[in-house]
Structure to design on (116 residues):
């Protein structure tokens, strides 16, 4: 059974930083993409950032470029999202996901709240 365990969410003031972690286990595929979506109240889920295990290539949503950094420790099947310069509009539940081919798996989510 594939499991994604997220940690690192919390409450922070605007301009502050948080680091999210996601540890994946229980899968057998070699090449995968792992990353984060987020969903704010009343809004659709949006992609934030992801990283490829095979090439290390990364993607960032325009709204977080220059502020968030994704990194992966693929020996531990763990991905990190360093979030700096947080803004109130970054408030959301952040979901870790892993995908390979047609297979997609999601974590339970971790709340990030940025106060103004």
């Amino acid at each position: 059974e594939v499991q994604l365990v997220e940690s690192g969410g919390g409450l922070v003031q605007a301009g502050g930083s948080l680091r999210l972690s996601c540890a994946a286990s229980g899968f057998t595929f070699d090449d995968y993409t792992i990353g984060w979506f987020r969903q704010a109240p009343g809004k659709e889920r949006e992609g934030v950032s992801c990283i490829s295990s095979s090439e290390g290539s990364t993607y960032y949503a325009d709204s977080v470029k220059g502020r968030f950094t994704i990194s992966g420790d693929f020996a531990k099947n763990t991905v990190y999202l360093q979030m700096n310069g947080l803004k109130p509009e970054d408030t959301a539940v952040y979901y870790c996901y892993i995908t390979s081919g047609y297979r997609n798996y999601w974590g339970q989510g971790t709340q990030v709240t940025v106060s103004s």
Remarks:
- The chain has a mean pLDDT of 95.
- The chain has no helices and eleven strands.
